[in-house]
């Protein structure tokens, strides 16, 4: 590894003109036009932003934000994702975006409500890399929606990372317990996911008191192969 320099600054985003918001969870993918697109969220802003470059290591320039189909105002939808922790893959020309957040806590600076706390969503994007082809589909339930599903007690919190291997889609995510990095699989990118287990945990139980110890910070993971 070697230092590549600053490839993008958070104050390049017009939504962050005052430079008060942090840049969260970036992911980069090559579009069908051969350019590279960087997706990220800004702290306490319910929106996914995009930057673009000719090279994967930048420099990147601001490109825009995720747009809903037919100019739909996403805040009018009864069920929708909170725009957080984007993960994007190019699946043989199909651009697939996952995003979402679901937390059992009151975070005053974040506009989390009954409409956008349902869990992890997936949507296919147009070739412009920012317009949704359809509305996002819920694929992994959040903290209060997993009962009687394979995700019960391992519901989605944040940190989605989508991958495809052979004919199977893999979704890594941080569960509601934070210290768990879990994964689910499906033969379809936008439905049919089933919980498969914990890849790693950065907490542990002692045999005598059955209480988790150590670091409770979330696990935000990814895979290459």
Distance between the termini: 18 Å
Estimate the strand proportion: 35-45%
Q: Strands of the biggest beta sheet: in what spatial order?
A: 1-2-3-4
* Gyration radius, in Å: 18 Å
Mean pLDDT: 93
Instruction: Please give the count of helices.
Output: 0
State the share of residues found in helices, binned by percent: under 10%
Helix and strand content put the structural class at: mainly beta
Question: What are the low-pLDDT stretches, counting only 5+ consecutive residues below 50?
Answer: none
The major pleated sheet works out as: 4 strands, antiparallel
* Molecular shape: globular
Q: Output the helix-strand order.
A: EEEEEEEEEEEEEE
| Extended strand count | 14
Can you put this structure into words, describing what you see?
There is one protein chain. Helices cover 0% and strands 40% of the residues. The mean pLDDT is 93. The protein is mainly beta and 225 residues long. A 4-stranded antiparallel beta sheet has the order 1-2-3-4, with no helix packed on it. Strands 5-6-7-8 form a 4-stranded antiparallel beta sheet, with no helix packed on it.
Keywords:
single chain, 225 residues, mainly beta, 4-stranded antiparallel beta sheet
